Amino acid sequence: MPVWREEKLDCDVLVIGGGGAGLRAAITAKACDTDVLLVSKVKVGSTSNTYISKAVIASTGWGPPDDNARTHMADTVKGGRFLNDQSLVARVTERSHAEVQFLKECGVHFGMQAKKLRVIQTPGHRYARHVYGENWRGSDLVIPLKHRAKQAGVPFAKQVYVTRLFADDNRVRGATGITSDGRFYTLHAKVVVLATGGYAQNWPAISPVQYYR
User: Among 39, 43, 58, 146, who pairs with 157 as Cys (CB 3.0-4.6 Å)?
Assistant: First the structure.
């Protein structure tokens, strides 16, 4: 592909990925009064892991009163065969209730029952603690987040395929990317957030039979 134009962009926070995680990170960075840029290889929000999901979120505080962040963490660690980063799991489970509340404030509509969020139980969880988008579609989550990011003033660089991260002094300092129409970007940042999904691809696929032997 011929390169027709080269551009250099500087920012405080570079977020790579335009799904739910990337949008949420960009919203938080913008709220901290930083110069943030979100880069997505496709239209922001579309074809992301969030978009193709069922908009199901595990969160305590909406279901049985005896369920809490501690039991949620225990179920998650056990389900991960104790390979999880437990400090990270603790932070996620402790904040899940507040994050669902934030999504509601962004305009996300969840499944309701008797004017309360309806929770369902899924395998691996001892309690019913999962809320879900009213249409069972990832767009229930990602589209309101996209609108919230726009309202916050987060700039989007769409259809930029990131080709490489570059580092200096053992810290990632930015990335390079290219577009289908031949633009080449060099992106410098103080902080780089990877929200690109597909992390499970780092491990070989194994069958349930192999897994439980």
Answer: 39
